[in-house]
Model the fold of this input.
Amino acid sequence: MNKWWKKEYTVIAVANVIYIILFWVIRASFNL
Amino acid sequence: MSLIDWGVLALTLLVIIAYGIYKTRAKSSLDGYLRDGKSAKWWTVGLSVMATQASAVTFLSTPGQAYDDGMRFVQFYFGLPIAIIIICITFIPRYSKLNVYTAYEYLESRFNLETRLLTAFLFLLQRGLAAGITIYAPAIVLSTVLGTSLSLMIFVIGGLVILYTVLGGTAAVNITQKYQMLIIFLGLFIAFGIIVSRLPDGVSFIDSLHIAGAAGKMNILDFSLNLNDRYTFWTGIIGGSFLALSYFGTDQSQVQRYLTGKSEKESQWGLLFNALFKVPMQFFILLVGIMVFVFYQFNDSPIFFNTQAQEQVYTTIQAESYRALESELNELQEQKRDIYTEGLTKTELAEQIRPLHDQERRLRLEAKEIIKTAVPDAEPNDKDFVFIHFILENLPIGLIGLLLAVFFSAAFSSTASELNALASTSLIDVYKRLFRQEADDDHYVRVAKVLTILWGVVAITFASVAPLFENLIQFVNIIGSLFYGTILGIFLLAFYSKGYISGRSVLISAVISEIIVFVVWRSDILAFLWLNVVGCISVIALGYVIQLLLPTKSAMS
Done:
């Protein structure tokens, strides 16, 4: 596994963390 | 449904199938038939993996799930990206190195033939039954709403899938899945656009999210530590990781999709495509369901979405009490509309609307009880009918056909992968390994075709008799989680125990772990997703313990 591949996995991980943060924002903004 | 819609539906499905058969007519080698000659690009792998996982039930049920229970179902998929990254790092390089046709082949090279056969057998048992349900579940909904017989629907779905999967093998499955996914995305985006455009004047998309939120439907994240709740953040991220690791890493219906990758990198990219888009995709499908919910806040909805079952109630002595519930619901819906147009703040809206939602829920439950007694044959859960009812009642002619093509495409694509994988495993791990090791490719391709037909017939037969055994359907739905953890544990030991654990220790630990999983399942103390964790961890722990004990025991004897 080279460095380039590691970068791909990081992108996926970061993207999914961003999704969860967005979901948290959506819940906080809309769910009562 | 109009003739134009039937035309759009038939044309969409048949053109994709015909194209798939035409493009793959010349595959004669075993590698070509089972792995598409390892020629697939990452986007083909990615869409194929996605299409395999997303069955018709995903598109029929998920919007209904959001309508009923809100957005929290999305948490179920949080573990998937973690699992996929592990598979890309650990599983794919090992499968590639040994150039395997099935995941189970790998286990013989690491442990022994018995371990390979045990996991292959568990896969055949579980996936063979599940293939029947993959056909049955949409067939029961589609036959009801389209007014056709259930048997005809099962035969059409099963028959068409068998046709192109037999003729073109894995390549035909791959190529059709690409276009089926295109239809699925197109259909969903159009449905979403239409719902938003049908919101009343003065109600924006953001307003609609507030309306859903006031009803508690925007409950996307739940951090509670309840182990018996399947839709929490923790269950999703931990239980979901184990489930996805087992499903994508060891279930041949998925492994076969990425084994078609042109290179290790193409396979990895195909899976990573899913790690990137699966969560947003599920979020979007749930959002469609939320928008359907909001749509029905401003438009009348039936008290029970399986309206065919309703028609039957009207002919029974329960009709009067059922109609009384319906008029109560109509009044309630009027009251809700008045509240929505009062221009209340978020909190005021929630305070006023919540009691009405609770009341509506009670009315719907009462209606369901009447349906259960008056029409015992009808499915008492109308969640699966919510989205399709909306489509049939509200979409323009032509688009109804396209949206129905979404459900059929999803049914075809997941069933095709299952039949394809069942045939590959029974050919490679059983027939070729145990009965005929040396034969030419023509012979094996012929056998693979016969096996695909046989598994297709098994699936159609099971789908046809499924309604007779309600408990069996429920059992098949959880059977995956009963075996997945154990199978995953075996694979992880194969990858990471570095030759320390013997095949014998693995087999003993697998049998004991399976007993533990069954005991935990029967005692009903954990949500089913956690069974994957229990099975996997106990195989690994017991594997090491038994390996320590075995030599001592033999020395003593």
Remarks:
- The interface with chain B takes residues 1, 5, 8-9, 11-13, 15-16, 19-20, 23-24, 26-27, 29-32 of chain A (CB under 8 Å).
